[in-house]
Amino acid sequence: MQLVTTTADLAALCLRLAREPYVTVDTEFMRDRTYWPKLCLVQLAGEREAAAVDPLAPGIDLGPLLELMADERVLKVFHACRQDLEIFWLSMKGRVPKPIFDTQVAAMVCGFGEEVAYETLVQKVAKARLDKSFRFTDWSKRPLTEAQLRYALSDVTHLRVIYEQLASRIDAAGRRAWVEEELARIADPALFEQPPEEAWRRLKLRTRDPRFLAIVQKLAAWRERTAQARDLPRQRVLRDDLLLEIAAHKPRTVEELRGHERISLDRASLAAVVAAVNEALAIPASDLPELVEPSELPRGIGPLVDMLRLLLKICCEEADVAQRMVASTADLEAIAMDDEAPVPALSGWRRELFGEAALALKQGRIGLVVKDRRPAILSLANRG
Hints:
Nucleotidyltransferase, domain 5; alpha/beta; DNA polymerase, domain 1; six-stranded mixed β-sheet; 3 domains; two-stranded antiparallel ribbon; 16 helices
């Protein structure tokens, strides 16, 4: 098993991989005790070799690896790449690996359903089995065993077979543009930005009172910045339930905040929390944040949305495409109310696959029937 622990060996490996048409990539990281993901291992494989890179090795510089990730001549192949891209986005100062290919996305246009697991593709495409024994291992501990490295490298060696077969299927079906459109969306560097001022939107709120929301916003932003600075999970800084409790009680002094039995913060944090509350209380009423009430569907639209959902299922099953790739529930609701709704399902390949049929159903040009005990589409164009 090749484990790269020096900058020189990493540079040599990346130089060789840069000559390959594609490189399969996977990462192992820990995040249960930190805010930022702690990169523990990077697995790479080209057509002729596979290796694991140890980011925790003393003195190693990951510069050659990051250069490879940015090299647009080499395709980077991942499976379910969201977390891997975030890790590289942090190391690459706001950039992400480019170009990329995600086998989970590819599988969704090849008839494998929604968010197919890597293990499923290994079994069905690579015709192999994954060793599950190190699934929950602590990858930060050293030294790594041969068995651990063998397990880790299997994630990129099987991925070579999966990529080649899925890419071949996609090209044969003329669906490469479908995959690239989705990849452009999930690899947008803006998706990884985490403005502290927006952190409050992750909380489950039971009230829409603007003043309460303002306090929550200020407290959540303070917690986010503190978690980032201390590299601690948000809940270790201040639990969600306690944050909402503080917002409800609006303590204006440190003494008042200390009076809450469940609140246990250091002196600096107590002062910062009170400052955040007072800052929120000073915001003019006209500038307070709002949560927009979800609009209720007009009476009678619900059944139409249900019909569109069934139509979507029929169209996607016929095309062997995951429904999530084509339209969301919000898209269906928008289409139900507006023939020109600005949703992806009414443009490009999605319109061809489903959007046109959705409008035809709304306009009474097609109907849904049961044929041979299966839902089917019936043309009504020539009926009275």
